[in-house]
């Protein structure tokens, strides 16, 4: 599994959550199971593992098979999770897509491989897919997506060119249109920001993150911890602001925790990872 996705900030997340033997934890984005496995290696812990991607759940179940009596899986968006009466000792959410998803050509997340423009993490959802957004949005709507979710400077120019050239059904066709519109000197592929923006729009990533940030503090017992790992400022900003404003929480990381040089060297994806930790206040603290 490590070849499909390298987990980031594992030790820092375990320390931040103050994992204790016998504790019950929620991994809201189990992915390939790296963080869940690290938690389950601690004696008698239990994990409820969520992911909206059925393929990820299947792979995590294989990896976590040695702990099968202490882990339960649920395929759901973390915004829709219903814990019932369960209160967790801690919650971890490692946001965004996994390398497995990015590197699966048929999922359509990457300009590197020719595939249908899909980009849904939950392939059972009704959509829209990236192709639906590209082919049926107005130029203004597309420009807003590229600007808001990709911080793409040439959002309007790219959106106009897409509208002239559509229908576009494949990753490579879209990447070519973007590359022919802007002549970037930056080292990243010119379509990188457009692809990130579409992925965020297709999966409504910022809206579901807001719902998760509003609901999840209630899923943790007083004194329990929340850990969120984000990979770009559009994700990190709401975590920082919502937690700071939340009377249920005490923020323990004034500045986000980042990866060591050694981790970045062995896993370049770790370079942009930011970990924030909060603690659920005890009820008597909240009423002070
Ligand atoms: C960065 S990966 C997690 C990797 C995992 N921590 C590991 O170490 O293997 C993110 C995972 O979260 C899932 N995901 C993203 N947003 C989600 C959401 N709103 N609800 C549920 N799962 C989500 C993705 O499908 C992906 O599998």
Description:
This protein is α/β, with parallel strands linked by helices and 288 residues long. It folds into 2 domains: 10-100 and 206-286, Vaccinia Virus protein VP39 (Rossmann fold, 3-Layer(aba) Sandwich), CATH 3.40.50; 123-202, Putative methyltransferase TM0872, insert domain (DNA polymerase, domain 1, Orthogonal Bundle), CATH 1.10.150. The protein contains 13 helices and 7 strands. The protein has helices at residues 10-17, 34-40, 54-63, 99-102, 130-136, 139-150, 155-165, 171-181, 192-202, 205-215, 233-245, 261-266, 283-286; strands at 24-27, 46-51, 71-75, 88-94, 220-230, 249-251, 274-280. A 7-stranded mixed sheet has the order 3-2-1-4-5-7-6, sandwiched between helices. The longest helix has 13 residues, at 233-245. The N and C termini lie far apart (47 Å). Bound molecules: S-adenosylmethionine.
Order of helices and strands: HEHEHEEHHHHHHHEHEHEH
Annotated CATH architecture of the largest domain: 3-Layer(aba) Sandwich
Low-confidence stretches: none
Distance between the termini: 47 Å
- The CATH topology of the largest domain is given as Rossmann fold
Rg calc: 20 Å
- By DSSP (H or I, 4+ residues per run), the number of helices equals 13
Find the CATH superfamily of the largest domain: Vaccinia Virus protein VP39
Question: How much beta, percentage-wise?
Answer: 5-15%
The biggest beta sheet reads: 7 strands, mixed
**CATH secondary-structure class of the largest domain:** Alpha Beta
Helix content: 25-40%
Strand order of the largest sheet: 3-2-1-4-5-7-6
Domain tally: 2
Class by helix and strand content?
Answer: alpha/beta
How many strand segments?
Answer: 7
Shape: globular
Average pLDDT, all residues:
95
Bound molecules: S-adenosylmethionine
